[in-house]
Structures are given as C-alpha cells and as structure tokens.
Amino acid sequence: MSASGQKHPAVRILEDLISIQSVNPFYGNGARGEGEIANYIEKRCRAAGLTVTRQSVFPGRDNLIVELRVGKPDKTLLFEAHMDTVSLGSMTDPLVPRIVDGRLYGRGACDTKSTLAGMLYMMEECAKRRDTIPSDLVFCASVDEEHEYRGLMALLDLNLPLAGAVVGEPTEMGIVVAHKGCARFAVRTHGKAAHSSVPHEGDNAIYQMMQVIRHIRERVEPALRKVEHPLCGSPSIAVGTIGGGSQINIVPEACEIEVDRRIIPGERPDRVLLEFERELGEALRDRGVTFTIRKLLLDWALDTPHESAVVRCSRAAAARLGLKPDLVGAPYGSDASKLQQLKGIPSIVYGPGSIAQAHSKDEWVPVREVEQAASFYLEVATTFPYEYESNGADDRR
C-alpha cells in the first residue's frame, strides 16, 4: 500500500491475474490453460504501445512475447515468468484474491503470478520512458512450466539474441544464481505371473523391487549426502510412486517406481541417469533382478557466473532499493536453467514469496514483497547493463 493509501499497480494487476483461472491442462478436467491470462496481458501491453507476438506452443496455448526495442539488440534483457498454475485443489475460493494481514491469497499468488504482475508493471512503466531505457527489453509470459516447460523450450527455438535474463519465481527476494535440476525416471522390474497358491511357479516383481529400493536407501542416499554445493546443498533422491500387480491371487509380473533425483550444479541429468542405471545393474547382477529404466524428465541445474552483467546489475539494483543483494541458491528448478545451460544466457531467478507457500492449500504472497519485486524489475530494466560495464563496480560487497 502506498503512502496515499492506494494499492500499488502491481498489486492490482496481481489481483486481476489471480481471478483468471490458468490451471495447466495436465492437471485434469476443468483446467483452462493460459489462454485467458494471455489475453489479459496482451490487451494491457498493446494499450501501452508495446509490440506483442503470440507464439503457438499448443492449440489455444500461446507464449506471449512482448518487446520494447530501443535500438540496442546486442544488449537485450529478457524477463520471463510462466502463466500456468497447478490445480486449484482444496483451496477455499482460489480465484478470489484476498488481502489479510499483509498477505495476498489465491491460487498462483506466489507461484508465480506475483512475478508476472511485477514484470507487466515494469514493461508498462518502461514504455512511458523508452527514450531513457539503455537496452532492448523482451518480456515472455510462457506456458507449461508446471508440467514440462515446453513454453520456454519453444522460446529458445526462436534463437533470440539475449545478453541476460531475469526469471520470475518465489525466491524470498533473494537473487538466485544457482539451483537444482532433476533426473526423473521410472524403474520397472520384470517377473513371471503365477497363481498365488503356487507362488514358487512365478517370479514376484514386487520382491525384486524391494532390492531396487534397498539399493537406493542403503547405497545411493548415503553417497549423495557426502556431496555438497555451497549454495544448493546436497543432491537427493526420492521414490515418489510405486505400483505393481493386478489382483491379490496373482503373483505380480511387473512393478514400477518413479524416482526423482535432484541434481546440483556440476552434474548433468543425462549422465546421472546413465550412472544410476550402471550402478544398479552392478549391484543386482547376481540377485535375480531384471529391470528396465524409462526416462521421464531431465532438467538442468542453474549455475550462473557471479561476474555476469545481469548478476552485477541485479545486486546493485537491490542495494539501491534497500533490498538484499546477496547471491543465493534454491532447491527447486526453474526456466532459468534452460536459458543458461542450453543457450549460454546468464540468468537469475527473482521474485516475492517463498516456495513453501507455492502449490499449497493456503497459497499467499506478502503484499510488500510484490511491491518491492516490481520496483526491482524496473530498476534492473532501466539500468542494464552499461553502468556496471563502464565503471567496473565490484559486486563483492
């Protein structure tokens, strides 16, 4: 709330965004996808005189690419945040924004419509002062981050020349330069069906899977705890689902688990998966276990150089606004890792709220942080990158 008692424009935008259902269609019937929210953002951006392009990713689900070109294409800065949310779940009135005790409640308030609101506010403000903006700006409101980040991958296919990127996610107003990635995969054991009255005639795939899980608990987990990244901590592994058998009186011929292996900077998801398969094969070679592994999702970790222009600019912007200039890590993933790992675009992650509130029954974001994040995005957009290249400002404060 401003000194005049009026809501900050970014807060009003966030309330509008929360009221628009944008659940990723992956999460079942009733999910509307990102179409309506894209329409809202496009209308505002066109009214501000910004150039808007729709990039089709799925039928009725478009990335929205908003540009403010000032003749500096070699210094283009990208702001990116996703429009989709997870399911509404058991939230009470998830599409009705409510402010209670300085918290704004609603589905997507934290993850990540608050960053969308701040970036939209930033673009509208920059459009009013385009003659003073030192670099070209691109704002992408993307689809599908909550499932397989195919919106971001479609954006990368455009091969836009980008000098840096700010990705919106809840970071508790910390400048995230490193975060975990993942290798998600399924392990299936293969047995032989038989009547349960003569189980010795079969080969129980669930019993085989017990040995796979024992390998994960007794060998893989302890080894991972011995490795640590200074900002992200240790890699981890977790069995998330298990299923096997068809009915009680049949020895199961198949059992499958789904595994989430979180990787840290320095690890590659494809190599992590291959190494797991090799070690599992060696451990179970003479134990009568037959298994196959199916890849589900590979995602890279983020590890942005601290001396890059977007990092230096962000730290200076935060310091000028009285915000935290510290560089931090995060245990989750974001679209930033694809920008940095696949295209070499130095990227940070920044936004209001905590990952602890994302996807929760009572999702909320601090109103004050929504206002501060909007100011941060604007400060970065209006200073990137010249001041920090020309004066050699030291970021080690």
Rg, rounded, reads 24 Å
Helix content: 25-40%
What is the number of helical segments per DSSP (H or I, 4+ residues)?
10
Q: Count all strands and give the number.
A: 18
Helix-strand makeup class: alpha+beta
> What is the general shape?
elongated
Task: Write down the overall mean pLDDT.
Answer: 95
Biggest sheet strand line-up: 1-2-6-3-7-17
SSE series = HHEEEEEHEHEEEEHEEEHEEHEHEEHH
Through-space gap between termini: 31 Å
How is the main sheet built? 6 strands, mixed
Q: What fraction strand?
A: 15-25%
pLDDT below 50 for ≥5 consecutive residues: which ranges? 390-397
Give a concise summary.
The protein contains ten helices and 18 strands. The longest helix has 21 residues, at 205-225. Helices cover 32% and strands 25% of the residues.
